[in-house]
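User: Could you walk me through two proteins back to back? I'd like the raw sequence and the structure tokens for each, with a short line separating them so I can tell where one ends and the next begins.

Assistant: Of course. Protein one, sequence then structure:
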Amino acid sequence: MSEGGSGQMFKIMKYLGEFKASVAAVILLLILQAYCDLALPSYTSDIVDVGIEQGGIENAVPEIMRPETMEGICLLLGDDAFIRENYRLNEDGNYELQAEKPETIAALDEAMREAIVILYHQGGNTEELSDTMASQMAVMFIRAEYEAVGVDLNAIQTRYLLKTGGKMLLMTVLMMTASIAVGYLAAKVSAGIGRRLRDRVFRKVVSFSHAEMDRFSTASLITRSTNDIQQVQMVAVMLLRMVCYAPILGIGGIVKVINTRTGMGWIIVAAVVLILALVGTLMKIAMPKFKLMQTLVDGMNLVSREILTGIPVIRAFSREKYEEKRFDRANQELMSTQLFTNRVMTFMMPTMMFIMNAIAVAIVWFGSKGIDAGNLQIGDMMAFITYSMQIVMSFLMLTMISVMLPRAGVAAERIEEILDTEPTILDAEQVRDNTVSGEGTVVFENVAFRYPGAEEEALSDISFTAQPGKTTAVIGSTGSGKSTLLHLIPRFYDVTGGKITVDGIDIRELSQRKLRSMLGFVPQKGVLFSGTIESNIKFAGEEYVSDEMMKEAAEIAQAMEFIEEKKEAYESPVAQGGTNVSGGQKQRLSIARAIAGRPKIFLFDDSFSALDYKTDAVLRKALHEKLADATVIIVAQRISTILHADQIIVLDDGRIAGIGRHEELLQTCEAYQEIAKSQLSESELKGGAGNE
């Protein structure tokens, strides 16, 4: 695995470190699974070699033999004390084995094997015989001895096959149980990682100011919260189920291959070299494409989101063909990259299978020569093939994960980028929440603001006071900084010069929660959430907003009329984004939501633009009557909305061009005069406008 792949793997393993107990349990279960998996080929070899070829006779230690055979063996050994003390004469006059301990049986086997082979070979040269041939001769001698004594050979074979088959069955059950448990724990850990990452990303994004939100696009944040985390989850499962298992299985397979003493280990070495060369080549080709994949997914999501949200505009301008081409371009780029990576995978798998089959053919080819020479048994060859496949499979598992790691590594980097981003707007170490009076006086003192990375200030030298019980209006041409000014009060951005105070306290000395609890903010574009009308108006929390407060807020916002017309009234469903209500209804519900919490300061960001003039006038009158003690700051495009404001602030290119009432500004402020001339009639300009 490459250095970059190792680094990516460690990034994922960092998340696994939060589930140490489960990971430890998985590793123990994998060791058990590998032990069972590695034991099965040995049992298969024993069934073929011992159970079938040797008729169930495991060693060169006869369970029963005639006296003349005993004497022959003892004569050849010279020292017969060890042999005689483990055998006893039975009622039939034959010697019967008394030893039961495995170590005693092994010692007897080593002591008696050569003597039995000499007896079977009848004095021939035994030095040139291989261990395999010597074992087979000893077994054939014992079979003949059993036949002479009258032992049932079929019963011996059956007993051995049932015993070994039972062990295989037990190992299979244990392996299956361990595999199921590993799968369960891996899925649980993966789901836990996904849940924690989504929670952390969500909490981090919620803490972002507008500056951080501008840095990450909405499409990218959605991709990072869903697709990227899914990639990490998937690789986490693979790490637990494959990467941890592969070394255990591979090392165990190598140990087993060494113990078979077949002399064919060079085949495994050659196969591993070929696999590593193949993987290295493919990864060098495919790695850049895997890194590109997530970026293309981001672009695809961005285009899709823009098209889907902008369908009405697209249709209105007959730009369907253009947007189709744009979508097709993004789709084609993603498809081409996916096709490339899939082709790499398609090429790799058949090549791996070819190597595995070539290994099997080579083992059979060279193994058959060993069998023909009497140096190897069929079962040993079968076991060697199985162990070789297990070793190759372990490398294949690592290869598979190395292919997936780059994309998951990129995903992890993108997630970490969000988690490592520190919000620019933070609460002070020592907040003054308990000292704020709650009157609602807002003061701008020489406020200046510049967007991050901008060369010029969006606002400069802004000073005014918004008092409780009075309405302060902000008006100006497009791009003059009206909304920016309003967004500074809830600290969506922080001022870069001067300060803003609420009741004499710098808003940076208040906690964001405390500050925003004092504000009723209505954005320029009404935002509703999926649920009901009630849940949207009571968005501040049912513990703060009662049913009476909800109904009063709806009445002030002039929303009662259309709410009561609905069959389910306040329980009427609201679709995601408020798509099932009109623009004017959406704005009125947004206003009602702000009113329901009964804050001391109201911020209206051109929140009346979707209302007709009659509803606008009635709503503003109700606001003035019902919220007489509140501080109201209105950003507006229409002069008719702010005619009766106690104070109008005229912005021009980020600076205050004039402050005063409507009549005063018509006489003293050139910028206001230009706006008024574009919206009001001649009679209204002369003073007849205020009587609505």
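----
Protein two, same layout:
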Amino acid sequence: MSGDGFAAKRRAEAAENAQSASAEPSLIEQLKDQAGSMVGMAGMFVVTILLAMKIQPFYDHDEIRAFGSEGATKAGFILLELVFIFIFTALIIYLARRNMEKFIKWGVLGILWIAMMYTLYPLAAMVLVPEPPALTEDEMDVSEAYIVSVEEGGANFYYVDDPLSGNGTLMYVGNAGEIEYWSHQIIPEDGFVSETVRITHTEDGIVMCEGTRWVLLDAATGEEKEEHPKDCYVGFRQEVTEPEQMPPDWKWESCDGEDNVPQDWTVVDGYLEAIPFHNDGDLGPRDCGDGWQFPSEFDAQNVIFAQEFGSEHFLIVSPKWAGMVQFPTLGQQVGGAQAGEQVETTWNITLSGGETFDAATLGAMPGINASGQDTLLLGTSSGRVLGVDVDQDGSVEERMSMQLAESVRGLLLADCCAGGSNDLWVIEGDHLRIFMGSGLRELTRSLDVGGDASRVPMALHNVDNSQSEIDGALLLMEQNGEWSSMNYEFIPSDNGQFLIYTIPGLIALILSIGMMIALIMRPEWYVINTVGVLVGAGTITMLGVSFVPWIIIIFMVLAAIYDAWAVYKSKHMLELADTMVNLELPVMLVAPQKPTRGRIQMARPETPIDGTPMPPAPRKGMEETMLMGLGDVIFPGLLCISAMSWLPDVEGPLGWSAPVWVAIGTMIGSLVGYCVLMTYVARGKPQAGLPLLNGGAILGYFISGMIFIGSSAFVFNISLF
């Protein structure tokens, strides 16, 4: 008997048969008599696990796991799950003893409905949404060309061509470089580009810095409008200050803004410095001092993102520090900042240890964004994706956090599949991942990015641009000046993301509600089994992807011990099972021996034999029925899914991966335990199912793991917390 049910034979009119039987039939005879029920139960056992294996890729992502990727090796979390089982069991028994069955029934039905949705949604998506084709790599003959900025949507971007020539050219292009909008020859002050070229967008144009000069370019043509021979790693132009905002006794030119004159700023050597300007031709440029100091963790020479916000703030990101910085307030006179004065921020974040920011992007998050809210996404070397909403007034609010398994090398907000809104493109380690919709559901594609660059800028070919001669779509990736391209096809759909997300969700919702209504109104054996299989598959998958095999094995061993104690010692599991049967709840699988035509429905239990609660008798000629609690299927299934999710992805026989073969071997082992269990069940006694089922599954895992993977199948760095 498992944690939520039991494996037992039910007999119609069992009391009369027990009293009138003159001799006990042999075990062989009993097995033959119940062969139909046993085979049917084994079939449902296998179908439930196979269904879980089918939907496993849909949930095999770190952000979906119950406790994230780090929690997958923590035994304390699985002990917590076991405590929840104890509490749930005690609560059910408590409510049953106080005749509060209504609370039990509707509470359990609600939980089952949620678990069923976890199965129906991916199944509906698999049927309705076409599987996207794999990306195909196409080599590009481009080298020594660095992407410096990619606009939201990915179609337009800036890159520096031939930077090692001494000067280089800033290019503004679209459609994966197919369309050239303008180019600007970089002419550094000392004749050689000393730093990586960086650009920022301002109200007046584009500010370009390459180490030796601050240059303002026309955003439409690329023509040079203004320049300062000032060392500059990153440059800004503060918006014009309105005259009415100035003090009435204003006399001196300032170093942080002036009446009707934009203030130019440079970031260099860890300081934010005002670039002096003057109106009197007889006076030279004024000295604005040392400027305002950034925190020590800020690296001015390795800024990965910078953007002005409104007239008073700018956002800047370096490998260890990011912040929304306020331009120095009006009122500072000539001389600028005081010695050691720090920049003011409305938000900042500092990374600790060896973690660094390696990717950044700004734009509207996936899904419908009617408010026009911009979100800054930051990817780190530890696999985190952090998102904050930013406003023109400089306010910042945390939005989301996603934990991935490997370092985040690239981020892009762009429409992948003609869905009408942005999708999130993430280069995690060596793989490209695409997340769609407000729920960030992953669109699975096959792509190995490769390379060793810590940052991988991405740009897209705009499939809707009539100027393009390229069929389909194109993804560009740049690593250390070398470009590669990937051809891909988007999901053809006139309804875009409505098809991708809304329709499968609606279908799953309608089917799940229909199944629950059928379960309540007509709880026939095939309705109970259908719901049970769907609920079991969803539960297996969600828990199985959350923990490594060793943690699942610990869980299975403890659950088996508890199951045996609850059945043979305390016997409270019999009481729990009887309660669930009385309420006609689908926490079990039903295998009728000889069903007849017509409706067969669970009925209330008959008089117990020797004080042991008897399962309800079937109606209409169903002489015997076998019941198996869902827990007896779920626990072996957990180890199968965990093996698929966490074992090394090496090739196995017949084109299947080795983890899949280990999962199959684990299922076969549990079936061996099931066969042994049936020798006890055939005698008509309630039996703890988990010791034999879990034991067989664990044995199957050990044998198949050693055959298909080797010793690495048993190496996991587990801990308590």
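The chain has a mean pLDDT of 78.

Let me know if you want the two compared in more detail.
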